[in-house]
Each structure stands twice: as C-alpha cells, then as structure tokens.
Amino acid sequence: MKVVEIQNLTFSYSRSASPTIDDFSFSMNTGEIVGVLGQSGSGKSTLLRLISGLEMPKKGSITIAGKPVVNDRLFVQPEDRGVGMVFQDYALFPHMTVKENILFGLSRMAKKDRKPRVKEMLELVQMEDFGDRYPHELSGGQQQRVALARALAPKPKVLLMDEPFSNLDADLKESIREDLLLILKKANMTCMIVTHDRNDVEAICNYSITMCPLIAEQGAAGEKFQTL
Ligand SMILES: Nc1ncnc2c1ncn2[C@@H]1O[C@H](COP(=O)(O)OP(=O)(O)OP(=O)(O)O)[C@@H](O)[C@H]1O
C-alpha cells in the first residue's frame, strides 16, 4: 500500500525566488525506508517540512495513507497528518523527564492507554530504566532514542527524520544505525531519512533519492539508488 504519495509538488520560499522544490513527484510503500540525499541547500529539509505541513506548497498534492493532506483545495494541519518527526537536535523538552517527553504527543489518545503506550515505547527503544531522567542526563544516542520514542508514540503513518545522526560521534553512529533499523522494522514504520552520509543509506535504507538544487524530482533530475 502507498503510504505517501506526492504529485507535482512545487514550492518557493518567496514569490519572486525560483522554486526550491519544482514539480516533484514521489511515492513510498508501507515499511519502506528511504534516504534523501543531496547537496546543502537542495531542498531536503524543505521536502520534509512540506510533507509534515510546516510549509504550504504553491502547487501539487500530498496524500498520506490514502488521505489527502494538501492539494489546491485543502490544507490539513500538521497535528492531523499522521506524521512523526525527529529533528537533528532531537528537540526534547529540557524541563520534562523522558516519560513526560513521550507522553507529550499523546493528548489525543484515551487517557487509560497513555501510560501503557509510554511503557511500550520505552521498551521499544530500550530505555526502560531512564524514564525519570531529564534530557541533559542522557547521552546523545540515548536522547536520540527518546526523540524516536516520542515521534513513534502517537502511531504515525510515516516518520520523517532530518539528519538524525549528525550529532553523534562515528562509533556511536554505527551502533545507533543498527538499533534504528531494528526499531523501525519492529514498528513496520515507513520512514524518510534526510542525510549527508551515503553510509547511512547503505546501512538502513531500501533506496535513496537525491535532490538536485532548483530542480528536484525522482527519475529525470533526481537519482534513485536501490541499496537493499
Ligand atoms: N525559511 C526560509 N526562507 C527562505 N529561504 C529558505 C528558508 N529555509 C530554507 N531556505 C532556502 O531554501 C533552500 C533549501 O533549503 P533546505 O534547508 O531545504 O536545504 P537542505 O537540502 O535541507 O540543506 P542542508 O543540507 O544544508 O540542510 C536553500 O537555498 C535555503 O537557503
């Protein structure tokens, strides 16, 4: 089943500028992990922002799990799209414990289901013993796991990760990649990962797309590499 379908997406940051994303079409199936490569400024983060609803396209449409989230007549708010995000800096709330951070995204879940879901997520990322700690009491890799648990807790249809490894040192990066792959597979999560590092793609992704500056699309102007 197609989880993400993007058709003819065009976006500019200002009316006069040439488009950052130009007539981009792409789709992802359930459980696929796709790497997004491309030089700095080619529009990788912008693509994630468009999918998650943080930006509005000029043209085109996005459908998530069969539900249109943006087209020329419709704009669904980010919180209603079923999209989870993990940012480069993890964006954990410093004044909240690990448990509270994970709980934060569950306001729409029935109250009785929230605590069990937090527990399930802590188990998934193997952080059961760290639930009462604050982010500053965790290593970079542990913070990343918490960010992942928080993003997965509301059961998103798709997970978007923007440079999730860039704050980790090389040794940690390798083990975290393996852990991430296991966690994503366990959750059968469909995931898009922006990275500068082809090794990330080779270790985790089913395939990658490469964004080209000004013109970004799969196929003609973009490249698609099968890695697994
Ligand atoms: N808020 C903004 N206002 C105007 N232009 C922006 C804004 N954010 C990004 N841009 C521009 O849009 C283009 C694409 O930026 P984007 O952050 O998507 O690139 P990227 O491929 O993720 O880059 P990097 O690899 O450096 O993170 C760049 O030229 C950037 O300068």
Automatic annotation (TrEMBL):
SUPFAM superfamilies: P-loop containing nucleoside triphosphate hydrolases (SSF52540)
KW Transport (keyword) present: yes
The ABC transporter domain, residue ranges: 4-228
Molecular-function annotations in GO: ATP binding
Keywords: ATP-binding, Cell membrane, Ion transport, Iron, Iron transport, Membrane, Nucleotide-binding, Transport
UniProt name for this protein: ABC transporter ATP-binding protein
Organism: Cytobacillus citreus
